[in-house]
């Protein structure tokens, strides 16, 4: 048997990590400004994280949700506190798509309606409802096609108002900053408009915080910049620093009914230990503040390069929009300067590093970037990798 080949990959075998650095099997060091799709939030192999997982594994790795799981209550309490939504309720699952799937379903249970508003270029995951609200026909199988989803242009308030007019909308799902869509920040007034229309029509505001949440922007949820609350926040990625855990934070106005949601693995002991370790480090080391400071510094410095078309983002979620002539820079950063970054089509470099990125590492990137944009493309750096 061999793996089902669904991704083009970089032919690099990373075998070790520490903080924002990783090493391949040949001993080559890399600066990791990607965190494996924005997952590494407190740095690779953080000692507190390793110890907490190790200790939990020696105690009990797993039992299902048919018993009391005190560490789940501990995680919910801590998450409520760190996220500033103490009266919200937590449902745990295992991934971002699952979080969105559960959020959309819960919204529909709540108001009995079927239609969902999503936005152009949105990415919400690959399970059936999550992929149905994702604006990418290439990943939508025929079985996932539905008339229940309305895609609206990004930032278009008039289209939003019109879509609500027949009062059939169950929920609106929106990333606070579109990630796969190219680091597009949702304007504050647009999020406020969604809030007021959801209130007016008893629809559910779902804030997809899978990539842009968990402190990455300097606030716990990037939607918080708008000063309004969503009804459901979905999260995953940074939540477990690599241990698969996702969740939804649910407004107190939505009441649980037995069996409306459920999961075998979600909220197990080991996953909760990982989630707690992340929040403890975030709190103890002021990681949201660091994300705001180092991210702000990077954004300001990147704006000084005149070859860059646009720098977008907040905190440590940064998009560097490059012209076609600099399409090779991402590959060059990896293969010549040994720096992992992400990308969005066509030519956006995405920075999604750990929230404890240091200024020294930020400067190391800026120096490499300034060199990389000066050089012409070299054939050996294959950008399709
Ligand atoms: C905004 C957003 N939502 C949902 C998902 C899906 O998360 P997962 O891959 O954990 O299912 C992603 C993944 O990239 C994402 O960026």
UniProtKB/TrEMBL annotation:
Transmembrane segments: none annotated. One of its GO terms (molecular function) is transaminase activity. This is Aminotransferase class III-fold pyridoxal phosphate-dependent enzyme. The keyword Transferase applies. PANTHER family: ACETYLORNITHINE AMINOTRANSFERASE, MITOCHONDRIAL, AMINOTRANSFERASE CLASS III. Pfam families: Aminotran_3. Keywords: Aminotransferase, Pyridoxal phosphate, Transferase. It comes from the Bacteria. The keyword Transferase applies. Belongs to the class-III pyridoxal-phosphate-dependent aminotransferase family. Its cofactor is pyridoxal 5'-phosphate.
């Amino acid at each position: 048997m061999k793996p089902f080949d669904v991704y083009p990959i970089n032919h690099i075998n990373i075998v070790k990590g520490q903080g924002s650095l990783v090493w391949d099997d040949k001993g080559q060091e890399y600066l990791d400004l990607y965190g494996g799709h924005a997952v590494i939030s407190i740095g690779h192999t953080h000692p507190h994280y390793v110890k907490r997982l190790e200790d939990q594994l020696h105690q009990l790795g797993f039992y299902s949700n048919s018993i009391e799981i005190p560490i789940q209550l501990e995680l919910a309490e801590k998450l409520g506190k760190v996220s500033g939504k103490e009266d919200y309720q937590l449902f745990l699952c295992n991934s971002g798509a699952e979080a969105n799937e559960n959020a959309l379903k819960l919204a529909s249970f709540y108001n009995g309606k079927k239609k969902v508003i999503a936005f152009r270029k949105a990415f919400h995951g690959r399970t059936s409802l999550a992929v149905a609200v994702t604006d990418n026909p290439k990943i939508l199988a025929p079985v996932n096609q539905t008339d229940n989803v309305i895609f609206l242009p990004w930032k278009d308030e008039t289209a939003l108002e019109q879509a609500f007019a027949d009062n059939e909308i169950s929920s609106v799902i929106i990333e606070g900053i579109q990630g796969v869509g190219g680091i597009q920040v949702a304007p504050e007034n647009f999020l406020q408009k969604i809030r007021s229309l959801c209130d007016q029509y008893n629809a559910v505001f779902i804030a997809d915080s899978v990539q842009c949440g968990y402190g990455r922007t300097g606030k716990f949820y990037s939607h918080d910049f708008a000063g309004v609350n969503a009804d459901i926040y979905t999260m995953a990625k940074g939540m477990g620093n690599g241990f698969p855990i996702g969740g939804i934070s649910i407004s107190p106005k939505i009441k649980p009914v037995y069996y409306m949601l459920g999961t075998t693995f979600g909220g197990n002991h080991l996953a909760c230990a990982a989630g707690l370790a992340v929040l403890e480090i975030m709190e103890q080391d002021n990681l949201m503040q660091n994300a705001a400071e180092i991210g702000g510094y990077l954004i300001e410095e990147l704006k000084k390069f005149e070859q860059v078309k646009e720098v977008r983002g907040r905190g440590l979620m940064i998009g560097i929009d490059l012209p076609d002539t600099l399409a090779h820079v991402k590959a060059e950063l990896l293969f010549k300067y040994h720096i992992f970054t992400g990308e969005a089509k066509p030519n956006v470099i995405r920075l999604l590093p750990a929230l404890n990125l240091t200024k020294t590492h930020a400067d190391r990137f800026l120096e490499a970037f300034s060199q990389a944009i000066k050089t012409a493309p070299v054939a050996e750096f294959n950008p399709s990798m």
